[in-house]
Amino acid sequence: MKIVVDANVPAAERCFGFFGEMLRLPGREITPADVRDADALIVRSVTPVNAALVANSALSFVGTCTIGTDHIDLDALKARDIAFASAPGCNAEAVVDYVLSSLLTLAERGGWQLGERCVGIVGVGNVGSRLRSRLQAMGVATLACDPPRAEKEGEDGYDSLATLLERCDVICLHTPLVPDGRHATHHLLGAQELDRLAPGSIVLNAGRGDCIDGLALRQCLVGRGMAGRGLVGRDSISAVLDVWEHEPGIDAGLRDLAALATPHIAGYSLDGKLRGSWMIHAALAAKTGRTPLSLDALLPPPALAELSLAQALDAEDALRLCVRAVYDVRRDHDRLWRQMHEEGITLGFDHCRADYPLRREFSTLKVNLSGEALRLASLLQAAGFQVNQQT
To answer: Which residues hold NAD(+) (predicted)?
Structure first.
């Protein structure tokens, strides 16, 4: 069996060398010639798998180690009877970690408390539902907008986008990209929607870049933001952007206006990546009648396994301490700025993703609490950490 694999798929040797001959190639450079005699193709989000790529191939299986399938022409695969698998939810916990790290960073810069905010979550799928659960457990007010889910499940628990824009001061986008139709998400936030944001609002996009009109957002930030300073004032509009239109050739002007700008890495935890590889490995094993490896066999122990707190701290200061012990979003923001200035926009963006440093999820850290710090237990557990109460 011959398997073509994106060179940036982690644990590829263990997950896919398992099945036979493996050829690793840069994801953006995979061509029809590369897959002509291949039995399986394993990609991430940068490889467009379309009719032209698979037309003259021997492929019987395509897997993407990502939650999204925007880059996959499912009709083209179906027409050629090519089995397909994706990895829904594989990196959802990492994206929620990213959101919490970002909001806690902006709260520290702006001198406000996350618990004072109302967070509007647009798209309540694998990521959005987990984010809502964590925030609610942390005592943060949330509203949710997901018209397709509301139609299936009933309106209770869901609000319109207009309601979120009116009542929330944080808007988090976690929707798939739907180009057209009744529930289209392309440019879901355009000039009109952005104009309705209340002073001091934050827009965070860790879903799909095309769900925000980038030009309209840039104009909004020029008029109402704090350009280039990364600060959040009470009257400004600020943006946290992990996904962009026209990746990797993103709008450098918009990047400079964003309070936090990162290169599509919100879900790039080691845990999420390995979970994605393992899910496709398991799907290919099922198709070929093999017994898959266990996920635990792929996950290494974390570099920082435990942290202990004994003294009373402000709750959100303690939360920030634990969050940054695992993942500090400011490093990704600074690295993107540095790489893009050194290498140019496209190369810098891609190199940030290809050479991304090791990152674990909040759930890999056990926080030992004793003394006055015991009162932090419920908050830290709600945020996603393991908590050990030592009485």
So the answer is: 146, 175, 242, 267
268 is in an annotated binding site: yes
Region at 259 (left for phi over 0; alpha for psi -120 to 50; beta for the rest): alpha
HSE (side-chain half, CA atoms, 13 Å) at 55: 6
User: Which residues are the active-site residues?
Assistant: 208, 247, 264
Is the domain of 244 the same as that of 332?
no
The count of domains in the chain is 3
Residue 78 covered by a domain: yes
* DSSP secondary structure letters along 261-307: E-SS-TT--HHHHHHHHHHHHHHHHHHHTPPPPPGGGTPPPPS--EE
What is the rounded distance in angstroms from the CA atom of residue 202 to the CA atom of residue 165? 11
pTM above 0.85, yes or no: yes
Residues 110-169 have pLDDT tens digits of 999 999 999 999 999 999 999 999 999 999 999 999 999 999 998 889 999 999 999 999
The amino acid that residue 177 corresponds to is L
Same domain, 164 and 121: yes
Same domain, 229 and 280: no
**Is position 45 annotated in a ligand binding site?**
yes
Q: 216 and 96: one domain?
A: yes
Q: Answer whether residue 280 is part of any domain.
A: yes
Residue 391 annotated as lining a ligand binding site? no
Domain that holds residue 131: 91-261
